[in-house]
Amino acid sequence: MIDFSWLEIVAVAVSLATIGCNIREIHWGWPLAILASLMYFTLFWHKRLYGNASLQIFFAVVSAWGWWQWLRPARGGAARLAISRLTDRGRVGMVVSCILLWPAIGWFLHAYTDTDVAWWDAFPTAVSLVAQFLLARKYLENWVLWLVVDVVSVALYMHKGLWLTAVLYALLFAFSLAGLRTWQRRAA
To answer: Kind and range of the H or E element at 96?
Structure first.
């Protein structure tokens, strides 16, 4: 039998509203992200997904920073931060960051927690750290990383019995694809 908690149901709804705001560049997505992150911290901790749980605290902090980034005047006198693309060097840094973070987080989870999915939990955690930073700075490539996170997370959450959250991440894959396409048009 599939069992959903009210916390998971509300967290999914708030997460969907967050991604909708992000795609449309509506700054109210950031406080919604903080709320969703705090709810998912509790849910993931209970399921022994410590990497994902800890990531939610990071998301809450970076969401506060992202909100500030999106609201403050941009460099060069622009009214707000504009969507931009990483340089070739920036893309290499993005990939290297993901490659270095994954084993570091995986080792920590394996060595210091009772999780049964240390390396599997570590991968989307590592990639999400980089993606969240890129989103806060409005780099187009954040959506590519979210696509990767979404695919891996669907399987991880199904394995842990978080069926509604697995459905959420399947939907987030579609939204991330829409976000990528929308931001590509706006960055052109």
So the answer is: helix 88-112
Residue 166 has pLDDT above 80, yes or no: yes
Distance separating alpha carbons of residues 14 and 6, to the nearest angstrom: 12
Cβ proximity of 44 and 53 under 8 Å: yes
What pLDDT is stored for residue 143 in this prediction? 97
Supply the DSSP string of 100-169, one letter for each residue. Answer: HHHHHHHHHHHHHS--S-HHHHHHHHHHHHHHHHHHHTTBTTHHHHHHHHHHHHHHHHHHTT-HHHHHHH
Phi and psi at residue 180, in whole multiples of 5°?
A: -60, -50
With 0-12 CB in 10 A as exposed, 13-18 as middle and 19+ as buried, what is 97? middle
48 half-sphere exposure, CB direction, 13 A CA radius: 12
One-character DSSP codes across 154-175 = HHHHHHTT-HHHHHHHHHHHHH
pLDDT at position 70, please?
Answer: 84
- The domain limits of the chain are 6-74+92-187
Tens of pLDDT, residue by residue over 78-137, are 667 889 999 999 999 999 999 999 999 999 999 999 999 999 999 999 999 999 999 999
With a CB cutoff of 8 Å and minimum separation 6, the contacts of 180 are 140, 143, 144, 147
How many other C-beta atoms can be found within 10 angstroms of the C-beta atom of residue 68? 12
